[in-house]
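Private note to self, pasted from the team thread so I don't lose it. Backbone tokens:
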């Protein structure tokens, strides 16, 4: 049974472990080993989302199955460790899209509705906050989920080099 709740600072160690498992377990079908390793430098938990009360945890039978959030801030992707990508400026809901951020599903729980639940929770919350659209920067592994949820590709790009390796990314968007 799927349940959800907002993440708290006490959840951060478990969320970090989930993120590592998701990157290592789900990216390998889409990226070479060097790109998977570099993904850890590009992706990560953004504790600002937890502090803002916009980061969800989904559990299945009390086991941590996935996490993800949304933001009213300009940062499109990246975690606490990727300071160059961070912009805490507040977005204007009437003219700018909310951000779907830091989505991870534990490999043991893929294709069980975890990602869809998180996307739906985030879209509902952003809509309630007055946003009319949402954008994300997704991985190649995440792109099929986002397409099924109605997101369309805006651009294909890649991360800044991490140890000389670029990670392919896809910017996607959707009207709410």
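Design output:
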């Amino acid at each position: 049974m799927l349940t959800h709740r907002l993440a708290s600072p006490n959840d951060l160690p478990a969320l970090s472990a989930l993120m590592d498992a998701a990157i290592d377990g789900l990216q390998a079908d889409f990226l070479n080993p060097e790109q998977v390793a570099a993904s850890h430098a590009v992706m990560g938990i953004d504790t600002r989302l937890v502090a803002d009360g916009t980061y969800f945890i989904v559990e299945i039978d009390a086991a941590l199955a996935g996490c993800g959030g949304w933001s009213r801030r300009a940062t499109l992707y990246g975690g606490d460790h990727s300071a160059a990508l961070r912009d805490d400026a507040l977005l204007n809901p009437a003219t700018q899209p909310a951000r779907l951020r830091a989505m991870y599903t534990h490999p043991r729980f893929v294709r069980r509705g975890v990602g869809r639940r998180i996307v739906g929770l985030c879209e509902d919350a952003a809509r309630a906050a007055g946003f009319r659209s949402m954008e994300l920067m997704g991985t190649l592994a995440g792109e099929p989920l986002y397409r099924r949820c109605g997101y369309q590709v805006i651009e294909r790009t890649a991360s800044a080099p991490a140890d000389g390796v670029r990670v392919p990314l896809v910017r996607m968007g959707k009207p709410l």
